[in-house]
Each structure stands twice: as C-alpha cells, then as structure tokens.
Amino acid sequence: MITLTHYLVLSSILFVIGLIGIVRRKNLLMLFFSTEILLNAVNIGFAAVSKYHHDMTGQMFAFFIIAVAASEVAVGLGLLMLWYKRNSTIDLDSMQSMKG
Description:
The protein has a single domain (4-92), classed as Helix Hairpins, CATH 1.10.287. The chain is built from three helices and no strands. The chain is mainly alpha-helical.
C-alpha cells in the first residue's frame, strides 16, 4: 500500500533533481525543465497532503501552480526564441557578457 510517506519521498527526490538541474545550469532550456520539475515536485507534495487530510486546499494550490507554470513556459519560450535569434545560442554563459 502506498502511504503519504511514499509520495513525500518521491516529491523530495524530484525536488532535489530539479534543484541540481538549476544549480548546474548550462542551457536555458534545461533551466526551464528544471524549474518545471521543481514545481511538479511541490504539486505532488500538495496533492498528497491534501488527500491525506481529506481537504481540497492542497489540490487547489497545485492547480494554481500548474497555471503559473504554464504561463512561465509561454513567456520563457518566447524569450528563449528571441535570445536564440539574436545570439544563435541558448547557452547561459553568453548571457553573462552584456553588449552595449
């Protein structure tokens, strides 16, 4: 039987994977993927605790996080395409040198 602890361990593992992805950022697209993994880990935790307490609050928070993540992806991919058109790369090291 799967308990709350199993879900929270899964959520923690996914959160650590997303955090490692953000820290090791080399590519802007991978940074977006890592952010999505972090947000989904939080969603799993919210939904599991919500189910455990028989309360819909955590599931509602997860719903709003999904909406925020979708808008973040839409804006982020637009900026990514603009950056690629200007610099022909999505490497984050190229963002560190600003040209006037």
